[in-house]
Amino acid sequence: MENLYDVVIIGSGPAGLSAALYAGRARLNTLVIEKERTGGQIVTTDEVANYPGSIRNATGPSLIARMVEQVEEFGAKRISDTITEVKLEGKIKVLKGEKGEYKAKAVIVATGAKPRQLNCPGEKEFTGKGVSYCATCDADFFTDFDVYVIGGGDSAVEEAIYLTKFARKVTIIHRRDQLRAAKSIQEKAFKNEKIDFIWNSEVKEIKGDGIVESMVIRNRVTGEETEIHANEEDGTFGIFVFIGYMPQTDLFKGILEMDERGYLLTDENMKTNIEGVFAAGDCREKSLRQVVTACADGAIAATQAEKYIENNFSE
């Protein structure tokens, strides 16, 4: 059958690449389909200090590069395409993309998540013109400028600390009166003299003429609105948004079971409600979304896919 693979993996973040590594090593005919960049969210991370074994100078891109090398060594194929339709019921799964159609005995969904947006006036207009969702990508543009980080979780505070390497001053704007980040991360931020905080506040509007020049924030306790203007000499400032992620699972609505937020529901073996279909990584409902758990998910999903194929396609 044309374009029939043992396993097709949708997504090439740590979960997808780990699944490809294990599937390829099991001598399964494996295909990884990625619609954007290889590596997912982790390639935007400057420092990976909490992945076991990554101690000195470990970055998201360097970690992904090593994973890709391993995947290729074990024979998994990688292509770029956007899947637009899936038919997952039945023995042979069919995935339709913009560039072609792919058939598989088993499918692993590792589509990840993308940054959640503020959804305020001006955000979309000034994305790439002062508004960013990736400190590693854009920090250098704001060397010696003021920068504002929106959010209070691990990612927001970690990226704020990273931005102090470039920015003149970093201000964290959080909608609550205390951070949600891990205590160890909070301590680093509070000790950093270049980091300030604005509590109980949210961004209501972003303004400018071609580039960000000001933003309006609202105090959620008092209701008072304040407009923050760029330093006169600078003319602009950076707004980095880190308020969580949205699972990339729209393609599977009405097909695979998911929670109210759109995260795919699986059992401990990464099995979804459809036989032969597995989910791994940030697109899956779970308590911790980190590289280490994504890799574990991918390994489990591939191993279970191998067992499924052995049990259902043996000659």
Automatic annotation (TrEMBL):
Keywords: Disulfide bond, FAD, Flavoprotein, NADP, Oxidoreductase, Redox-active center. GO terms for biological process: removal of superoxide radicals. Gene3D superfamilies: FAD/NAD(P)-binding domain (3.50.50.60). GO terms for cellular component: cytoplasm. It catalyses: [thioredoxin]-dithiol + NADP(+) = [thioredoxin]-disulfide + NADPH + H(+). Its cofactor is FAD. Its EC number is 1.8.1.9. NCBIfam families: TRX_reduct. Homodimer. This is Thioredoxin reductase.
